[in-house]
Amino acid sequence: MKTIVPIDPVTRLEGHLKIEIEVDQVGGKQQITDARATGTLFRGFETILQGRSPEDAPHITQRICGVCPVPHAAASVNALDDLSGIEVPNNAKLVRNLVLGANFIDSHILHFYHLAALDFIEGPNMPPWQPSWKVDKRLSGAVTSVLVEHYKQALAMRRKAHELGAILGGRLPHTPAFIRGGTTAVPKSADLTKMRTYLGELLKFIRTVYIPDVNALAAAYSDYFDIGGGPGNLIAFGVFDELNGTHLLRNGLTKSGSPIIEPVDVWSIKENIGHSWYTDANQNLNPAVGETVPQYPKGDAYSWIKSPRYNGAPFEAGPLARMWVNGDYRNGISVMDRHAARAEEALKVANAMLVWVNQIQVGQPAYKQSTLPSAGTAIGLSEAPRGALGHWVKVQSGKIAKYQIITPTCWNASPMDSLGVKGPVEQALIGTPIKDVAQPIEALRVVHSFDPCLSCAVHVSRPKEGVRIFAIGGGLHANV
Ligand code: NFE
Protein backbone atom coordinates (compact mmCIF):
# COMPACT_ATOMS: atom_id res chain seq x y z
CA MET A 1 0.00 0.00 0.00
CA LYS A 2 1.33 3.44 -0.93
CA THR A 3 1.97 5.92 1.85
CA ILE A 4 2.46 9.63 1.15
CA VAL A 5 4.85 11.19 3.66
CA PRO A 6 5.23 14.98 3.76
CA ILE A 7 8.41 16.38 5.34
CA ASP A 8 7.60 20.04 5.87
CA PRO A 9 9.74 21.91 6.55
CA VAL A 10 12.94 20.00 5.89
CA THR A 11 15.15 21.32 8.69
CA ARG A 12 18.92 21.87 8.76
CA LEU A 13 19.00 23.78 5.52
CA GLU A 14 18.69 27.45 4.63
CA GLY A 15 15.16 28.58 3.72
CA HIS A 16 11.95 26.61 3.35
CA LEU A 17 11.77 23.30 1.51
CA LYS A 18 8.95 20.79 1.58
CA ILE A 19 9.49 17.23 0.41
CA GLU A 20 6.68 14.80 -0.26
CA ILE A 21 7.60 11.18 -0.78
CA GLU A 22 5.48 8.23 -1.81
CA VAL A 23 6.64 5.00 -0.12
CA ASP A 24 5.68 1.55 -1.37
CA GLN A 25 6.94 -2.03 -1.56
CA VAL A 26 8.94 -2.84 -4.68
CA GLY A 27 10.26 -6.41 -4.97
CA GLY A 28 9.60 -6.91 -1.25
CA LYS A 29 11.59 -3.80 -0.27
CA GLN A 30 10.03 -0.65 1.16
CA GLN A 31 11.30 2.33 -0.81
CA ILE A 32 10.49 5.76 -2.23
CA THR A 33 8.50 5.38 -5.43
CA ASP A 34 7.78 9.06 -6.13
CA ALA A 35 8.95 12.41 -4.79
CA ARG A 36 8.12 16.11 -5.03
CA ALA A 37 10.31 19.00 -3.91
CA THR A 38 8.56 22.30 -3.17
CA GLY A 39 10.17 25.67 -2.63
CA THR A 40 7.52 27.38 -0.51
CA LEU A 41 8.57 31.03 -0.80
CA PHE A 42 8.60 33.43 -3.74
CA ARG A 43 11.87 35.10 -4.75
CA GLY A 44 11.38 38.73 -5.66
CA PHE A 45 14.95 39.81 -6.22
CA GLU A 46 14.66 40.00 -10.00
CA THR A 47 11.87 42.52 -9.66
CA ILE A 48 13.59 44.41 -6.81
CA LEU A 49 16.57 45.05 -9.10
CA GLN A 50 14.62 46.56 -11.98
CA GLY A 51 15.17 50.31 -12.32
CA ARG A 52 18.24 50.33 -10.05
CA SER A 53 21.79 51.29 -10.90
CA PRO A 54 23.71 48.27 -12.21
CA GLU A 55 26.44 49.09 -9.65
CA ASP A 56 23.93 48.21 -6.90
CA ALA A 57 23.54 44.63 -8.14
CA PRO A 58 26.59 43.09 -6.40
CA HIS A 59 25.38 44.53 -3.09
CA ILE A 60 21.66 43.80 -3.43
CA THR A 61 22.06 40.28 -4.82
CA GLN A 62 24.27 39.32 -1.88
CA ARG A 63 21.22 39.79 0.34
CA ILE A 64 19.66 36.79 -1.39
CA CYS A 65 21.39 34.60 1.14
CA GLY A 66 23.52 34.77 4.27
CA VAL A 67 25.26 31.49 3.49
CA CYS A 68 26.51 32.25 -0.02
CA PRO A 69 26.49 36.03 -0.47
CA VAL A 70 30.03 36.22 -1.88
CA PRO A 71 29.22 34.08 -4.96
CA HIS A 72 26.36 36.42 -5.81
CA ALA A 73 28.77 39.36 -5.62
CA ALA A 74 31.22 37.42 -7.80
CA ALA A 75 28.64 36.53 -10.47
CA SER A 76 27.30 40.06 -10.46
CA VAL A 77 30.69 41.79 -10.87
CA ASN A 78 31.60 39.26 -13.56
CA ALA A 79 28.53 40.44 -15.49
CA LEU A 80 29.35 44.13 -14.94
CA ASP A 81 33.04 43.66 -15.91
CA ASP A 82 31.82 41.92 -19.05
CA LEU A 83 29.43 44.79 -19.77
CA SER A 84 32.30 47.28 -19.36
CA GLY A 85 34.47 45.16 -21.63
CA ILE A 86 37.37 45.06 -19.18
CA GLU A 87 39.66 42.47 -17.66
CA VAL A 88 40.35 43.24 -14.02
CA PRO A 89 43.95 43.45 -12.71
CA ASN A 90 45.61 40.29 -11.39
CA ASN A 91 45.41 41.50 -7.80
CA ALA A 92 41.65 41.92 -8.17
CA LYS A 93 41.27 38.35 -9.44
CA LEU A 94 43.33 37.08 -6.51
CA VAL A 95 41.46 39.10 -3.89
CA ARG A 96 38.12 37.92 -5.27
CA ASN A 97 39.38 34.31 -5.26
CA LEU A 98 40.51 34.61 -1.65
CA VAL A 99 37.26 36.08 -0.34
CA LEU A 100 35.18 33.59 -2.33
CA GLY A 101 37.46 30.74 -1.24
CA ALA A 102 36.95 31.67 2.42
CA ASN A 103 33.20 31.46 1.81
CA PHE A 104 33.58 27.99 0.22
CA ILE A 105 35.56 26.68 3.21
CA ASP A 106 33.09 28.12 5.70
CA SER A 107 30.13 26.73 3.79
CA HIS A 108 31.53 23.21 3.29
CA ILE A 109 32.44 22.85 6.99
CA LEU A 110 29.02 24.22 7.95
CA HIS A 111 27.28 21.76 5.68
CA PHE A 112 29.00 18.63 6.90
CA TYR A 113 29.03 19.23 10.64
CA HIS A 114 26.04 21.45 11.31
CA LEU A 115 23.57 20.43 8.61
CA ALA A 116 24.21 16.91 7.31
CA ALA A 117 26.09 14.88 9.95
CA LEU A 118 23.12 14.83 12.32
CA ASP A 119 21.25 12.61 9.84
CA PHE A 120 23.84 9.95 10.69
CA ILE A 121 24.85 10.58 14.30
CA GLU A 122 22.88 11.23 17.45
CA GLY A 123 23.28 14.81 18.70
CA PRO A 124 23.64 15.79 22.40
CA ASN A 125 20.71 15.00 24.68
CA MET A 126 19.27 18.52 24.71
CA PRO A 127 17.44 20.90 22.35
CA PRO A 128 17.90 21.71 19.49
CA TRP A 129 19.36 18.25 18.84
CA GLN A 130 16.50 16.43 20.57
CA PRO A 131 13.91 15.20 19.89
CA SER A 132 15.30 13.43 16.83
CA TRP A 133 14.44 10.47 14.67
CA LYS A 134 15.90 7.35 16.33
CA VAL A 135 16.58 5.17 13.35
CA ASP A 136 19.66 3.67 11.69
CA LYS A 137 22.30 5.47 13.80
CA ARG A 138 25.26 3.14 13.33
CA LEU A 139 28.23 4.84 15.01
CA SER A 140 29.29 3.87 18.53
CA GLY A 141 28.83 6.22 21.46
CA ALA A 142 32.58 6.89 21.53
CA VAL A 143 32.80 7.83 17.83
CA THR A 144 29.63 9.92 18.17
CA SER A 145 31.16 11.86 21.10
CA VAL A 146 34.22 12.64 18.98
CA LEU A 147 32.04 13.87 16.13
CA VAL A 148 29.99 16.04 18.49
CA GLU A 149 33.25 17.54 19.77
CA HIS A 150 34.23 18.21 16.14
CA TYR A 151 30.82 19.82 15.61
CA LYS A 152 31.87 22.39 18.23
CA GLN A 153 35.36 22.80 16.74
CA ALA A 154 33.74 23.32 13.35
CA LEU A 155 31.90 26.37 14.71
CA ALA A 156 35.26 27.91 15.66
CA MET A 157 36.67 27.00 12.24
CA ARG A 158 33.76 28.68 10.50
CA ARG A 159 34.52 31.84 12.49
CA LYS A 160 38.13 31.64 11.34
CA ALA A 161 37.01 31.25 7.71
CA HIS A 162 34.84 34.34 8.07
CA GLU A 163 37.68 36.31 9.63
CA LEU A 164 40.00 35.14 6.85
CA GLY A 165 37.57 36.35 4.18
CA ALA A 166 36.97 39.64 5.99
CA ILE A 167 40.67 40.59 5.83
CA LEU A 168 40.29 41.58 2.18
CA GLY A 169 36.49 41.38 1.93
CA GLY A 170 36.06 44.19 4.47
CA ARG A 171 33.51 42.13 6.36
CA LEU A 172 31.57 38.93 5.83
CA PRO A 173 29.13 37.41 5.13
CA HIS A 174 28.13 40.33 2.85
CA THR A 175 31.31 41.82 1.42
CA PRO A 176 31.29 45.45 0.27
CA ALA A 177 34.64 44.90 -1.49
CA PHE A 178 33.48 43.44 -4.82
CA ILE A 179 32.94 46.26 -7.30
CA ARG A 180 32.95 46.53 -11.06
CA GLY A 181 36.58 46.80 -12.17
CA GLY A 182 38.08 44.97 -9.21
CA THR A 183 37.92 45.29 -5.47
CA THR A 184 38.05 48.04 -2.87
CA ALA A 185 40.76 46.11 -0.98
CA VAL A 186 44.37 47.23 -1.20
CA PRO A 187 46.30 44.21 0.08
CA LYS A 188 49.19 44.88 2.47
CA SER A 189 51.97 42.53 3.55
CA ALA A 190 50.48 42.26 7.04
CA ASP A 191 47.18 41.08 5.48
CA LEU A 192 48.97 38.31 3.63
CA THR A 193 50.75 37.17 6.78
CA LYS A 194 47.44 36.99 8.67
CA MET A 195 45.83 35.06 5.83
CA ARG A 196 48.63 32.47 5.80
CA THR A 197 48.09 31.90 9.53
CA TYR A 198 44.34 31.42 9.12
CA LEU A 199 44.85 29.14 6.13
CA GLY A 200 47.32 27.02 8.10
CA GLU A 201 44.73 26.46 10.82
CA LEU A 202 41.93 25.74 8.36
CA LEU A 203 44.06 23.37 6.28
CA LYS A 204 45.01 21.46 9.41
CA PHE A 205 41.33 21.10 10.35
CA ILE A 206 40.32 20.01 6.84
CA ARG A 207 43.16 17.44 6.62
CA THR A 208 43.11 16.02 10.13
CA VAL A 209 39.45 16.37 11.15
CA TYR A 210 37.00 17.08 8.30
CA ILE A 211 38.26 14.58 5.71
CA PRO A 212 38.86 11.77 8.27
CA ASP A 213 35.35 12.34 9.70
CA VAL A 214 33.80 12.10 6.22
CA ASN A 215 35.79 8.90 5.66
CA ALA A 216 34.60 7.45 9.00
CA LEU A 217 30.99 8.22 8.08
CA ALA A 218 31.49 6.78 4.60
CA ALA A 219 32.89 3.53 6.08
CA ALA A 220 29.93 3.08 8.44
CA TYR A 221 27.36 4.03 5.79
CA SER A 222 29.01 2.61 2.67
CA ASP A 223 25.58 1.65 1.25
CA TYR A 224 25.09 5.39 0.70
CA PHE A 225 27.57 5.19 -2.19
CA ASP A 226 24.68 3.41 -3.95
CA ILE A 227 21.83 5.64 -2.78
CA GLY A 228 20.66 9.01 -4.09
CA GLY A 229 22.16 9.05 -7.57
CA GLY A 230 19.72 11.25 -9.48
CA PRO A 231 19.92 11.94 -13.22
CA GLY A 232 23.73 11.65 -13.36
CA ASN A 233 24.02 14.84 -15.43
CA LEU A 234 26.52 17.25 -13.87
CA ILE A 235 27.08 20.94 -14.71
CA ALA A 236 29.75 23.45 -13.63
CA PHE A 237 30.20 27.04 -14.83
CA GLY A 238 33.83 27.27 -13.69
CA VAL A 239 35.28 29.37 -10.87
CA PHE A 240 38.42 30.88 -9.35
CA ASP A 241 40.30 32.76 -12.09
CA GLU A 242 43.91 31.64 -12.39
CA LEU A 243 46.40 34.20 -13.66
CA ASN A 244 47.10 32.05 -16.74
CA GLY A 245 43.51 32.49 -17.95
CA THR A 246 42.20 29.11 -16.72
CA HIS A 247 39.98 28.30 -13.74
CA LEU A 248 41.00 26.30 -10.66
CA LEU A 249 37.69 24.44 -11.20
CA ARG A 250 36.84 24.39 -14.86
CA ASN A 251 33.63 24.95 -16.79
CA GLY A 252 31.97 21.88 -18.29
CA LEU A 253 29.22 19.33 -18.15
CA THR A 254 28.81 15.61 -18.38
CA LYS A 255 25.79 13.48 -19.19
CA SER A 256 25.03 10.26 -17.31
CA GLY A 257 28.31 10.43 -15.36
CA SER A 258 30.44 10.09 -18.49
CA PRO A 259 34.14 11.05 -18.29
CA ILE A 260 33.61 13.02 -21.52
CA ILE A 261 33.31 16.70 -20.61
CA GLU A 262 31.61 19.21 -22.91
CA PRO A 263 31.82 22.99 -22.58
CA VAL A 264 28.67 24.68 -21.25
CA ASP A 265 26.75 26.67 -23.88
CA VAL A 266 24.71 29.14 -21.83
CA TRP A 267 22.21 29.55 -24.68
CA SER A 268 21.18 25.92 -24.16
CA ILE A 269 19.85 26.81 -20.69
CA LYS A 270 16.11 27.38 -20.45
CA GLU A 271 13.90 27.84 -17.41
CA ASN A 272 10.84 25.61 -17.61
CA ILE A 273 7.88 26.66 -15.45
CA GLY A 274 5.46 23.83 -16.23
CA HIS A 275 5.05 23.01 -12.52
CA SER A 276 6.20 26.32 -11.04
CA TRP A 277 3.94 29.15 -9.92
CA TYR A 278 4.81 31.50 -12.80
CA THR A 279 2.71 32.53 -15.80
CA ASP A 280 2.76 30.07 -18.66
CA ALA A 281 3.33 32.92 -21.12
CA ASN A 282 6.96 32.79 -19.93
CA GLN A 283 7.48 29.09 -20.52
CA ASN A 284 10.96 27.83 -21.43
CA LEU A 285 12.87 31.09 -21.75
CA ASN A 286 16.62 31.52 -21.70
CA PRO A 287 17.42 33.70 -18.66
CA ALA A 288 18.73 36.45 -20.96
CA VAL A 289 15.08 37.05 -21.93
CA GLY A 290 13.55 35.45 -18.83
CA GLU A 291 10.61 36.80 -16.86
CA THR A 292 9.58 36.38 -13.23
CA VAL A 293 5.81 36.86 -13.18
CA PRO A 294 4.16 34.90 -10.37
CA GLN A 295 0.87 33.05 -10.82
CA TYR A 296 -0.52 31.36 -7.71
CA PRO A 297 -2.30 29.04 -7.63
CA LYS A 298 -1.72 27.45 -11.03
CA GLY A 299 -3.07 24.03 -12.13
CA ASP A 300 -0.85 21.26 -10.80
CA ALA A 301 2.15 23.55 -10.18
CA TYR A 302 3.77 22.87 -6.80
CA SER A 303 6.88 25.05 -6.35
CA TRP A 304 8.20 28.60 -6.45
CA ILE A 305 11.43 27.20 -7.89
CA LYS A 306 11.63 27.23 -11.69
CA SER A 307 13.10 24.22 -13.52
CA PRO A 308 16.37 25.15 -15.25
CA ARG A 309 17.10 22.63 -17.96
CA TYR A 310 20.10 22.25 -20.29
CA ASN A 311 19.00 21.15 -23.76
CA GLY A 312 15.83 20.06 -22.00
CA ALA A 313 17.55 17.86 -19.38
CA PRO A 314 17.92 18.34 -15.59
CA PHE A 315 21.50 18.73 -14.31
CA GLU A 316 23.00 18.44 -10.84
CA ALA A 317 25.23 21.31 -9.69
CA GLY A 318 27.61 21.36 -6.73
CA PRO A 319 31.03 20.27 -5.47
CA LEU A 320 30.63 16.78 -6.94
CA ALA A 321 29.77 18.28 -10.35
CA ARG A 322 32.78 20.63 -10.18
CA MET A 323 35.21 17.96 -9.00
CA TRP A 324 33.92 15.49 -11.60
CA VAL A 325 34.14 17.98 -14.47
CA ASN A 326 37.63 18.95 -13.32
CA GLY A 327 38.73 15.29 -13.18
CA ASP A 328 39.48 15.46 -9.44
CA TYR A 329 36.78 13.06 -8.20
CA ARG A 330 35.03 10.38 -10.25
CA ASN A 331 34.19 7.65 -7.78
CA GLY A 332 30.44 7.86 -8.38
CA ILE A 333 27.31 9.98 -7.99
CA SER A 334 25.53 9.34 -4.70
CA VAL A 335 24.86 10.70 -1.21
CA MET A 336 28.30 9.73 0.10
CA ASP A 337 30.13 10.82 -3.08
CA ARG A 338 28.66 14.31 -2.60
CA HIS A 339 30.07 14.49 0.94
CA ALA A 340 33.45 13.11 -0.12
CA ALA A 341 33.79 15.43 -3.12
CA ARG A 342 32.79 18.44 -1.00
CA ALA A 343 35.49 17.67 1.59
CA GLU A 344 38.13 17.07 -1.11
CA GLU A 345 37.14 20.35 -2.74
CA ALA A 346 37.56 22.23 0.57
CA LEU A 347 41.16 20.95 0.66
CA LYS A 348 41.79 21.85 -2.99
CA VAL A 349 40.46 25.40 -2.55
CA ALA A 350 42.36 26.00 0.72
CA ASN A 351 45.62 24.80 -0.88
CA ALA A 352 45.02 27.05 -3.89
CA MET A 353 44.37 29.99 -1.57
CA LEU A 354 47.89 29.69 -0.18
CA VAL A 355 49.19 29.99 -3.76
CA TRP A 356 46.96 33.02 -4.47
CA VAL A 357 48.15 34.76 -1.28
CA ASN A 358 51.72 34.36 -2.53
CA GLN A 359 50.80 35.67 -6.01
CA ILE A 360 49.44 38.98 -4.69
CA GLN A 361 51.76 41.84 -5.59
CA VAL A 362 51.69 44.35 -2.77
CA GLY A 363 51.61 47.88 -4.15
CA GLN A 364 50.03 46.86 -7.47
CA PRO A 365 46.42 47.94 -8.19
CA ALA A 366 43.39 45.75 -7.49
CA TYR A 367 41.04 48.03 -9.42
CA LYS A 368 40.75 49.28 -12.99
CA GLN A 369 38.71 52.36 -13.87
CA SER A 370 36.24 51.98 -16.73
CA THR A 371 32.93 53.30 -17.99
CA LEU A 372 29.76 51.32 -17.79
CA PRO A 373 27.79 51.61 -21.04
CA SER A 374 24.26 52.96 -20.60
CA ALA A 375 22.81 49.99 -22.49
CA GLY A 376 23.78 46.40 -23.08
CA THR A 377 23.43 42.83 -21.89
CA ALA A 378 25.88 40.62 -20.02
CA ILE A 379 26.18 37.28 -18.28
CA GLY A 380 28.06 36.69 -15.05
CA LEU A 381 28.88 33.06 -14.41
CA SER A 382 30.47 31.78 -11.23
CA GLU A 383 30.16 28.97 -8.74
CA ALA A 384 28.69 29.07 -5.26
CA PRO A 385 29.55 26.41 -2.67
CA ARG A 386 26.35 24.62 -3.73
CA GLY A 387 27.07 24.81 -7.46
CA ALA A 388 26.71 26.68 -10.74
CA LEU A 389 25.46 30.25 -10.37
CA GLY A 390 24.50 32.60 -13.21
CA HIS A 391 23.40 36.24 -13.28
CA TRP A 392 21.92 37.64 -16.50
CA VAL A 393 21.60 41.45 -16.74
CA LYS A 394 20.11 43.85 -19.27
CA VAL A 395 20.83 47.57 -18.87
CA GLN A 396 18.82 50.32 -20.56
CA SER A 397 19.22 54.09 -20.05
CA GLY A 398 21.81 53.39 -17.36
CA LYS A 399 19.40 51.32 -15.24
CA ILE A 400 18.76 47.60 -14.81
CA ALA A 401 15.92 46.70 -17.18
CA LYS A 402 16.07 42.96 -16.52
CA TYR A 403 17.92 40.72 -14.11
CA GLN A 404 17.63 36.94 -13.92
CA ILE A 405 19.43 34.61 -11.52
CA ILE A 406 19.77 30.84 -11.65
CA THR A 407 21.17 29.45 -8.41
CA PRO A 408 22.53 25.98 -7.69
CA THR A 409 19.46 25.01 -5.70
CA CYS A 410 17.27 25.95 -8.67
CA TRP A 411 19.18 23.32 -10.67
CA ASN A 412 19.05 20.74 -7.89
CA ALA A 413 15.67 21.17 -6.21
CA SER A 414 13.69 22.07 -9.32
CA PRO A 415 10.22 20.57 -9.71
CA MET A 416 8.97 18.45 -12.58
CA ASP A 417 9.12 20.26 -15.94
CA SER A 418 6.32 20.42 -18.51
CA LEU A 419 7.56 17.17 -20.08
CA GLY A 420 7.11 15.39 -16.74
CA VAL A 421 10.88 15.09 -16.07
CA LYS A 422 11.66 15.50 -12.39
CA GLY A 423 14.44 17.59 -10.89
CA PRO A 424 17.70 16.07 -9.57
CA VAL A 425 16.69 15.93 -5.86
CA GLU A 426 13.36 14.35 -6.78
CA GLN A 427 15.04 11.77 -9.03
CA ALA A 428 17.69 11.04 -6.38
CA LEU A 429 14.98 10.28 -3.80
CA ILE A 430 13.21 7.68 -5.93
CA GLY A 431 14.43 4.17 -5.09
CA THR A 432 15.77 5.16 -1.66
CA PRO A 433 15.00 2.41 0.89
CA ILE A 434 12.86 3.56 3.85
CA LYS A 435 12.87 1.50 7.06
CA ASP A 436 10.22 3.41 8.99
CA VAL A 437 7.74 5.69 7.20
CA ALA A 438 7.20 7.56 10.47
CA GLN A 439 10.93 8.45 10.57
CA PRO A 440 12.13 8.62 6.94
CA ILE A 441 15.70 9.64 7.82
CA GLU A 442 16.99 8.08 4.60
CA ALA A 443 15.11 10.73 2.58
CA LEU A 444 16.71 13.50 4.63
CA ARG A 445 20.16 12.03 3.95
CA VAL A 446 19.50 12.22 0.21
CA VAL A 447 18.10 15.75 0.31
CA HIS A 448 20.84 17.11 2.59
CA SER A 449 23.61 15.63 0.42
CA PHE A 450 22.74 18.32 -2.16
CA ASP A 451 23.13 21.01 0.54
CA PRO A 452 19.96 22.79 -0.61
CA CYS A 453 19.51 26.48 0.05
CA LEU A 454 15.98 27.66 -0.49
CA SER A 455 16.85 31.26 0.34
CA CYS A 456 18.91 31.23 -2.80
CA ALA A 457 16.30 29.41 -4.83
CA VAL A 458 13.26 31.39 -3.71
CA HIS A 459 12.69 34.59 -1.72
CA VAL A 460 9.90 36.64 -0.38
CA SER A 461 9.79 40.43 -0.54
CA ARG A 462 7.76 42.09 2.18
CA PRO A 463 6.58 45.70 2.42
CA LYS A 464 6.35 47.60 5.71
CA GLU A 465 4.27 46.15 8.53
CA GLY A 466 0.59 46.81 8.02
CA VAL A 467 0.83 47.82 4.36
CA ARG A 468 -1.99 46.14 2.43
CA ILE A 469 -0.42 45.84 -0.99
CA PHE A 470 1.26 42.42 -1.02
CA ALA A 471 -0.56 40.43 -3.66
CA ILE A 472 0.41 37.30 -5.55
CA GLY A 473 -1.72 36.04 -8.41
CA GLY A 474 -4.29 38.83 -8.17
CA GLY A 475 -5.46 38.38 -4.55
CA LEU A 476 -5.13 41.23 -2.04
CA HIS A 477 -3.86 40.22 1.37
CA ALA A 478 -3.16 42.07 4.58
CA ASN A 479 0.53 41.96 5.33
CA VAL A 480 0.89 40.82 8.92
NI1 NFE B 1 21.94 30.34 -0.15
FE1 NFE B 1 23.57 29.57 -2.65
C1 NFE B 1 25.11 28.61 -2.63
C2 NFE B 1 23.74 30.28 -4.32
S1 NFE B 1 22.41 27.84 -3.29
S2 NFE B 1 23.45 29.12 -0.48
O1 NFE B 1 26.08 27.96 -2.45
O2 NFE B 1 23.78 30.80 -5.30
O3 NFE B 1 21.15 27.93 -4.32
Work out the helicity level: 25-40%
The hetero molecules present are: NI-FE active center
Q: Radius of gyration from the CA trace? A: 22 Å
Uncertain spans, ≥5 residues at pLDDT below 50? Answer: 468-480
- Which geometry do the CA atoms define? globular
Major sheet strand order: 1-2-3
Mean pLDDT: 93
Which structural class do the helices and strands define?
alpha+beta
Kindly estimate the percentage of residues that lie in beta strands according to DSSP. 15-25%
Helix count? 12
Structural features:
3-stranded antiparallel sheet, alpha+beta, binds NI-FE active center, 480 residues, 14 strands, disordered C terminus, single chain, globular
In short:
The protein is an alpha+beta fold. It contains twelve helices and 14 strands.
